[in-house]
Design brief:
With about 220 residues, the chain is mostly helical. The chain has one domain: MetI-like (MetI-like fold). Helix content is about 80%, strand content about 0%. Helix 2 runs antiparallel to helix 9, helix 4 packs antiparallel against helix 5 and helix 5 crosses helix 7. The termini are far apart. The relative contact order is 0.16.
Length: about 220
């Protein structure tokens, strides 16, 4: 038991590596903010394109959604960071992560938005339009708020997955939380930094998980 505690819950080592992991946590938070905000906005535009009556708008967005939902995010990340330099395009690790995860997550957000927009009855569009509102105003003030409310648990669930996905950034040596913890492990020859990183993720994600459960129960009721 003492050996187990020393290897996984060594408080002295956790205290020593805490500042390093805190820096990694801040990088993870910055990644999450960039990827989630861009993904939410990009996903909305892709969803609107999917529902467009114009084929030249609809088909490219449909292909975009299918392709980037099918490709593993790790493959996208390695291709952007390690493959594009062969074409003379070199990006920083942070930019590579943001682009790769944006492409992947905006396609998932798009499907969630699309489901929400479809769930709004056609009569809502017609009733709002009959008041003199333009199509864009109907979408902004009437349809979109209802659509987001209908799929809010799914949007939050996808956001939780995005936060967990940022741990893949350690593959290209971006100093986010998991990479920092693994570097600390390699120096200390102890698993306690990884346990501390897991606790950080738990503190970061647990409120979101509870929020998802709360909205799911409200919608079910």
């Amino acid at each position: 038991m003492d050996i187990f505690l020393d290897q996984f819950f060594n408080l002295a080592i956790m205290t020593k590596v805490f500042p390093l992991l805190l820096k990694g946590l801040w990088m993870t938070v910055k990644l999450c903010i960039a990827v989630i905000l861009l993904g939410l906005v990009g996903g909305l535009f892709v969803a609107l394109g999917n529902l467009s009556p114009q084929r030249w708008v609809r088909w490219p967005t449909v292909v975009y959604t299918d392709v980037f939902r099918a490709l593993p995010p790790l493959v996208l990340l390695i291709f952007i960071y390690s493959g594009l330099p062969f074409a003379g395009i070199k990006v920083s690790p942070f930019t590579a992560v943001v682009i790769a995860f944006l492409l992947n997550n905006s396609s998932y957000y798009a499907e969630v938005y699309r489901a929400g927009l479809i769930s709004v009855a056609k009569g809502q569009w017609e009733a709002a339009a009959s008041t003199g509102l333009s199509r864009s105003q109907v979408l902004t003030y009437v349809v979109l708020p209802q659509a987001v409310r209908n799929v809010l648990p799914d949007l939050l669930s996808n956001t939780v997955e995005v936060v967990k996905l940022t741990s893949l950034a350690s593959v290209i040596s971006l100093s986010e939380l998991l990479y920092s913890a693994d570097m600390a492990r390699s120096v200390t020859y102890n698993a306690s930094p990884l346990v501390l990183a897991a606790l950080f993720y738990l503190v970061l994600l647990w409120p979101l998980v509870r929020l998802v459960s709360h909205f799911q129960r409200r919608l079910a009721a």
